[in-house]
Design a protein that fits this description.
354 residues; alpha+beta; 2 domains; four-stranded mixed β-sheet; 12 strands; 15% strand
Length: 354
């Protein structure tokens, strides 16, 4: 049944009955949702300065629109506290940019999920996790902000698994895929700073990400060794395309990189140069198509080699995770080419709620 954020009626005043009602309406991701009681929805709306009927994002294929009110209802159902709401709003404002292509990235067989990376002080102020187990369970803000993204895609934009969402195998990130950038011990400017936002302004970056790839290297002790392992993961035949990448370095690995004096740009340059496959090798596995790799705007950077992305700037690198362990990660992009380009937006907080 189509989702109507104003149509919560005829439900007995009983928690379990309300949860079952949401299941019956098809409003869940398979897990129980929090019944969107009026009081919690209104408290959530206070964190947005625009009226409830204001439109945040519009589906490019169907014309379906996400209003502030519908976003708040789904955020409550996901389990968000009201103060998480500005992140949800900013994420959909970023996904609403045409180059993100949130219809294609959520409807295709590729199975991508929107990865949210929250950068800046706001992440810490709402208790987001940038440390141990940052991609795992246990943190309410990370889990419910990511889940709200999924519920909105399902309930408002009708990206229903098996109907409009045609993922071949899916992706556990479709439940929730949201992290904070670690500022503690980070030798590089935060993403929100690199993105040009004023001091004190936090941001959320959205990326249509494929499956999570753990990069283990407990023996490497130079940046070249650390990034050599990352580049190999980025260039494996199963993942390599001209699409963008996200690399989250573990603190153990970042310490090695920082002590050698490498900047983010140094790391991007090395990864771009190293994460490549020969055209012959690509043809051997059936992944090289002249129509994709010989476009004017997709021209090969190096003759006879396909690099991961078109330029070093296609590789977002940041810090995240616990102090112990040589485990970084690489997250590939959705699509065989460049069907979705990562976007970012500042996180705005209603002045009355600060």
């Amino acid at each position: 049944m189509p989702f109507d954020s104003h149509r919560i009626h005829d439900v007995p005043d009983d928690l379990l009955a309300a949860i079952d009602y949401c299941y019956e309406q098809g409003w869940t991701d398979g897990l129980p949702v929090v019944p969107p009681v009026v009081e919690r929805v209104e408290a959530t709306l206070l964190y947005e300065g625009r009226p409830p009927e204001a439109v945040i994002a519009t589906h490019p294929a169907t014309g379906l629109q996400l209003t502030v009110h519908a976003a708040a209802v789904n955020a409550v159902m996901a389990g968000c506290l009201p103060e998480y709401f500005p992140v949800v709003v900013a994420a959909f404002e970023a996904m609403d940019k045409p180059d993100f292509n949130f219809h294609g990235s959520t409807a295709s067989t590729g199975g991508s999920a929107p990865l949210l990376i929250v950068s800046g002080d706001y992440a810490e102020s709402i208790g987001m996790n940038a440390d141990v187990n940052l991609f795992g369970p246990g943190n309410r803000a990370n889990a419910t902000i990511g889940r709200a993204t999924r519920l909105i895609l399902r309930n408002v934009f009708q990206m229903i698994p098996g109907i409009s969402d045609k993922s071949t195998q899916g992706n556990p990130g479709k439940y929730s895929f949201c992290i904070a950038e670690r500022s503690r011990g980070n030798p590089w400017p935060l993403l929100c700073q690199e993105q040009g936002y004023p001091e004190g302004v936090s941001s959320v970056t959205v990326f249509a990400g494929g499956g999570f790839c753990n990069v283990e290297n407990h023996g490497g002790n130079t940046p070249e060794q650390i990034f050599g392992a990352v580049a190999d993961a980025m260039a494996n035949y199963g993942c390599i395309t001209l699409g963008q990448s996200v690399v989250v370095l573990a603190p153990e690995h970042m310490k090695i990189v920082a002590e050698a004096g490498w900047s983010r740009q140094d790391a991007q340059n090395f990864l771009f140069k190293t994460a490549k496959r020969s055209v012959g090798g690509m043809k051997s596995v059936g992944k090289y198509r002249d129509s994709e790799y010989n476009k004017q705007d997709h021209a090969l950077t190096e003759p006879d080699f396909v690099h991961r992305g078109l330029t070093p700037d296609d590789i977002l690198i940041t810090l995240g995770g616990g102090d112990a362990g040589g485990h970084s990660c690489f997250i590939p992009s959705w699509s065989r080419g460049r069907g979705s380009i990562m976007q970012h937006k500042p996180i705005g907080v209603c002045i009355d709620c600060e």
